[in-house]
């Protein structure tokens, strides 16, 4: 099998690490392309098994094999063109989050993937398959919570801006024309992948949304900085059984308010609180017992060989091999992206926005 990495930056290296863990029976040939000679040299020093190219098109010029995989790990404004080019060479494409920059690009890529009979995957599936979130899913499915009516999904960080406090060398995070947005486009792909996996909605109504860019005394002045640091939305999830669940969504990467996170599903018979990400492996399940709140706490750590950063490569590799997997591909990848994108559209237009599940 051949895996072609486009982009030799931070995430390109994480993918190379994951490729090393893939089953040994598959001899995997790794190739990498990046026009930045420094990034390419650092990559090849760390991963000498990779053949290096300065140009992605040149790397993909050889004839395609049935199971070739191209991984697009470059800044978002390049995803569409690189993924389109890679699909058109007849290869499966796994694209970093965010899938693309806007709804039109997402739909066009899906059409090309279908026409080429290739898979289009998105790395927003990193946090799928964790035992704690699987447990929450089974609580929902078993009706242990009764009728679920509300989800709080709130992550507020005071100073955590990509391109400022985190990975300050990658200034593209701050420029909307390059990154597509701020905290929403950075973390929203994961949030809506986790939420859509839990709730399996038929459609999603973004009823109201807002965003802001809180200021600090170290705001960048030497580079374009026009992305949001704080966003919120009220969203209605319409489920297959005709019921609906309200989602209170909020993400801050810069706020003068309190830092906290709160992810909780509330139903008529119980509630469950957990963190789908790094903060903790604890689940707190609350029910009523004789008129009193009865809380059960459990720890569900993840101990698999493939860690969160390995998941996108591992899941997509299984998908290409035709095996059962948690990979997010094709219609689901585009639907998840559109749910997040609808928050931008609603915040900008002031009008609600509905996104319906795409059928294969
Ligand atoms: N850094 C993280 O922690 C992280 C985590 C998850 C996902 N991601 C996603 O990965 C993507 C890349 O982020 P990053 O942090 O690795 O960025 P980065 O700035 O570290 O690296 C991006 C690399 O892409 C290269 N590049 C740009 N245009 C190219 C082209 N046309 N062909 C080949 N290479 C090209 C650049 O030269 C650079 O080396 C983004 O979509 C980001 O959202 C990043």
From TrEMBL:
This is Gfo/Idh/MocA family oxidoreductase. The keyword Oxidoreductase applies. The keyword Oxidoreductase applies. Pfam families: GFO_IDH_MocA (PF01408), GFO_IDH_MocA_C3 (PF22725). Transmembrane segments: none annotated. Coiled coil: none annotated. Gene3D superfamilies: Dihydrodipicolinate Reductase, domain 2, NAD(P)-binding Rossmann-like Domain. Keywords: Oxidoreductase. SUPFAM superfamilies: Glyceraldehyde-3-phosphate dehydrogenase-like, C-terminal domain, NAD(P)-binding Rossmann-fold domains. Residues 2-120 form the Gfo/Idh/MocA-like oxidoreductase N-terminal domain. Residues 134-272 form the GFO/IDH/MocA-like oxidoreductase domain. It comes from the Bacteria.
């Amino acid at each position: 099998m051949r895996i072609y990495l486009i982009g030799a930056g931070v995430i390109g290296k994480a993918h190379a690490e994951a490729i090393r863990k893939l089953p040994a029976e598959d001899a995997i040939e790794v190739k990498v392309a990046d026009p930045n000679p420094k990034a390419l040299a650092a990559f090849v020093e760390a991963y000498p098994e990779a053949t290096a190219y300065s140009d992605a098109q040149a790397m993909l010029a050889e004839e395609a094999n049935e199971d070739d995989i191209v991984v697009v790990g470059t800044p978002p404004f390049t995803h569409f063109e690189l993924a389109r080019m890679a699909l058109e060479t007849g290869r499966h494409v796994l694209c970093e989050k965010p899938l693309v920059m806007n709804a039109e690009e997402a739909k066009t890529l899906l059409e090309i993937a279908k026409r080429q009979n290739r898979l289009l995957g998105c790395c927003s599936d990193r946090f799928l398959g964790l035992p704690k979130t699987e447990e929450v899913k089974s609580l929902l499915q078993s009706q242990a919570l009764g009728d679920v009516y509300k989800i709080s999904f709130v992550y507020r960080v005071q100073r955590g801006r990509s391109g400022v406090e985190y990975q300050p060398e990658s200034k593209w995070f701050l420029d909307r024309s390059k990154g597509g947005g701020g905290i929403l486009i950075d973390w929203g792909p994961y949030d809506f992948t986790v939420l859509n996996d839990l709730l399996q909605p038929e459609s999603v109504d973004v009823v109201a949304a807002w965003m802001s860019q809180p200021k600090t005394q170290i705001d960048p002045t030497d580079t374009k900085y026009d992305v949001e640091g704080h966003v919120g939305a009220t969203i209605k999830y319409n489920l297959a059984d005709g019921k609906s669940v309200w989602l209170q969504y909020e993400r801050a990467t810069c706020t003068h308010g309190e830092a906290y996170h709160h992810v909780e599903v509330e139903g008529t018979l119980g509630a469950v609180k957990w963190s789908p990400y790094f903060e903790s492996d604890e689940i707190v399940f609350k029910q009523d017992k004789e008129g009193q709140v009865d809380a059960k706490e459990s720890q569900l750590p993840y101990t698999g060989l493939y860690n969160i950063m390995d998941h996108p490569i591992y899941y997509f590799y299984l998908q290409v091999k035709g095996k059962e997997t948690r990979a997010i591909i094709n219609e689901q990848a585009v639907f998840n992206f559109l749910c997040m994108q609808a928050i931008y559209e609603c915040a900008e237009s002031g009008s609600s926005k509905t996104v319906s599940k795409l059928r294969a």
